[in-house]
Amino acid sequence: MIKKILILAITFFTLTGYSQNLERWSREKAQDWYNQHDWITGANFNPSTAINQLEMWQKDTFDPETIDRELGYAAQIGFNTMRVYLHSLAYKADKEGFKARMEEYLNIADSHNIKTMFVIFDDVWDANPKIGKQPEPRPGTHNSGWIQDPGYPESVEMADSEELESYVKDILNTFGDDERVLLWDLYNEPGNNDKANESMALLKNVFQWAREANPSQPLSVGLWKWDLKDLNTFQALNSDVITYHSYDDPQAHNRIIELLKTHGRPMICTEYMARTRNNRFSNTLPLLKENNIGAINWGLVNGKSNTIYAWDTPIDSGEEPVEWFHDIFRKDGTPYRQDEVDLIKKLNSDTP
Predict the structure, then answer these.
(1) What Rg value do the Cα atoms of the chain yield, rounded?
(2) DSSP SS3 for 84
(3) What's the start-to-end Cα distance of the chain, in Å?
């Protein structure tokens, strides 16, 4: 009888996919992890010579010299974390080369004492990514060449695909115990570009695949649009650490913080800082530090992504806007605003 019960139990666990690895971190484990790190500050990083994720990671355009120089700018102002987007097409085209370039990037970042938060999938901007030579930037247009991963309708049609599962698991199995990797951000802004709940299947699967890979780093998917109730609920209830985006003014941002505190988990704001929306270093970075929330702004160096221009207000002439939307440095390392980098350095140096 005991033997029969054991066989039935093993069969049940096998069929249902039950595993200790599939469990979300406890609040205590998440807080212990967060307490082991200095205050997390940094930027979303794409080198100035890359218009998008593919241009960053493809063999012919991977640019370690620029990456090293620009991460040096970040280190000089005390940043310790970069959020960096991967792309499954770069992996598909050259699996071992792609992982080797990830290793090279991590070596460069580590030389500047910078950890990395990798982003796996993405629902933002162009729905038709293509391997090979990437387009030139459209003058004065914000992120004119940024691409979704895996694209649309692929994000729906391939949600259950072995190809994407193999990609996710290979990357996490390769770097899942790497101390240079801070966190896995599994899916950027699921539901964007009017996909809404069409993104749910891939969102659920990427969490499942990542749990099965069982990395030592935490998993998260950032909250970003508050009326996507089904997606938000799943993201919040499955993330080890609560991550979110806010380009709001301080008053609205503070309301978001108070709501998210109810989860009782460490928090990292993985996108903020849009000057013309009154979301600035001067009024947002101190708010995040006061609440012990990690702070990852959008943009480091002005480059081919054109993120000094606002989302919906292109400048066709390509002339510099009166006020930059994102980014901190010019290509030569000169700060856009010296008072901002002075504040960033001060807040980072005040960290115990």
Answers:
(1) 20
(2) strand
(3) 59
DSSP one-letter code for 276:
G
Task: Say if 45 falls within a structural domain.
Answer: yes
Q: 3-58 pLDDT, tens per residue? A: 333 333 333 333 333 334 589 999 999 999 999 999 999 999 999 999 999 999 99
Alpha carbon separation from 293 to 39, 72, 106, 162, 267 (Å, rounded): 8, 24, 24, 36, 5
Q: What tens digit of pLDDT does each residue of 49-63 get?
A: 999 999 999 999 999
Q: Domain span at residue 121?
A: 28-349
CA distance 82 to 301: 13
Q: Is residue 254 part of a domain?
A: yes
Overall domain count for the chain: 1
Q: Does some domain include residue 33?
A: yes
- Contact criterion met (CB below 8 Å) for 83 and 272: no
State the CATH number of the domain containing residue 63: 3.20.20.80
